[in-house]
Amino acid sequence: MVRTQIYITDQEQAQLRSLARRTGRKRSELIRSAIDEFLSRASSYPRLDRMQRARGIWEDRNPSDFQAVRNELSRRV
Question: Which of 1, 49, 50, 52 is the most exposed place for a label (fewest CB within 10 A)?
Fold first, then answer.
């Protein structure tokens, strides 16, 4: 593990301290857990965003258009 320092507001500190007392977990453990959750969600956003933007992209095209694109891509590789 790497030690690091962060600045949090007084309100964040109070809520974190309260949550630590209620759950019996250390504040550092709660912070690491929150960071892990954030990074997990953030890493899936780009893929989800691309999928949502691509939704319906072939809606107005026919299958021969798809084959033409595949052929063009095959020639480039």
Answer: 1
Q: What pTM value is reported for the model?
A: 0.56
Give the residue carrying structure tokens 């969600």: 41
Structural domains of the chain, with CATH? 1-54 (1.10.1220)
Q: Which residues of the chain have pLDDT under 70?
A: 44-45, 77
Cα distances (Å, whole numbers) of residue 25 to 12, 61, 73: 16, 55, 53
| Residue 35 token pair | 């960071």
Q: Which two tokens stand for residue 30?
A: 């709660």
Q: Tell me the C-alpha to C-alpha distance, in Å, between residue 68 and each of 40, 45, 50, 65, 77.
A: 37, 30, 22, 5, 15
